[in-house]
Amino acid sequence: MTGTLERPVMGPRGRTAVRIGPVSVVLRWRQLLVPLIALVVLVLVSAVSIGRGDYPIALPDVLRTLVGLGEGPQNFIVLELRAPRVVVGLLVGLALGVAGALFQTFARNPLASPDTLGITTGASVGAVAAIVLSGGSSVGAVLGGFGVPLAALCGALGTGLLLFLLAWRAGIDGYRLVLVGIALWSMGTALVDWLLTNAQIYDAAAAYVWITGSLNARTWDQAVPLAIALAVLLPLALATGRALGVMQFGDDTARGLGLRLAGGQTVVVLLAVALTAAAVSAAGPITFVALVVPQVAVRLTGGSRPPLLASGLLGAVLVVGADLVTRTALPEDLPVGILTAVIGAPYLLWLLVRGRRQFT
């Protein structure tokens, strides 16, 4: 009878079909459990990270403070000194994870990410130019007046727009997108090297710290704008789920299923670029998060494409966890981007070797 809930029917590989009148839904339990478990792990890792420092705070006390039940000194230490750093790391990982999932699903290529497509390198060009050329030229003075985060944001958005325009041929082909992105990455790297070569030693040192990606000295001034940006971008990205599910079968199939391919491709690419630009402007280019996390998420969930929500949450876990390790387990307080690069570089080599073997 219409409007009644019928008995769920177990399907293959952990799927359950639920029918409510004329509407039927297939529940994939792994795709529901993985984000939930990742969220729990993220809360625990964040609380542990906030509690570690020169003045240790127990995990229960951190959780009580976060829900508004803490005492005066703990409120200041947790909410003003330590929470901003963790929140920025959480939001950056969330944005990069979702951006990587968007790029890889659209391009149907596990190598597609903001790092390999030149978006983060474009942000580095803007930031390094703001640091090195500030006051030394008219362009540098303008960039320096913007500030390093805004200059990085402009560099990432400008590179993303250039990537979009160069890859567009009555639509965007994933293979052409990757090739154009690699070319832009190479050009951006050369520009950064040229700027650093001609920089004063103190400017070069400051630029090197930024381009490695770091959460040091992050405050609510970086966290709040990033949170506002993600509050707009993340719902839009999650709303592209149906279009992404169709795109993964190829352009001809997508058109046959009624998808406006050019418009869908434009929205996906622009959202991925905007998410990357927002993340990089807040913490610098924390590399390989957007490359590694979506492929881990797709293997954990057992789906056919990188899931957006799971990728974002796992990206947040990776960035916050890597920052915790660099602050507590290593001899020196290193930038978090160094540890994510150590994790991601071998994975990139494995992807390249695996792809070569499949090709041969």
TrEMBL record:
Transmembrane segments: 32-50, 86-107, 119-143, 150-168, 174-196, 223-247, 267-293, 334-353
Domain of life (superkingdom): Bacteria
Sorted UniProt keywords: Cell membrane, Membrane, Transmembrane, Transmembrane helix, Transport
Signal sequence annotation: none
Predominant subcellular localization, coarse grouping: membrane
Keyword Cytoplasm: no
Transport among keywords: yes
Localization of this protein: Cell membrane
Pfam families: FecCD
Membrane topology: Multi-pass membrane protein
Family: Belongs to the binding-protein-dependent transport system permease family. FecCD subfamily.
Record protein name field: Iron chelate uptake ABC transporter family permease subunit
Taxonomic placement: Bacteria, Bacillati, Actinomycetota, Actinomycetes, Geodermatophilales
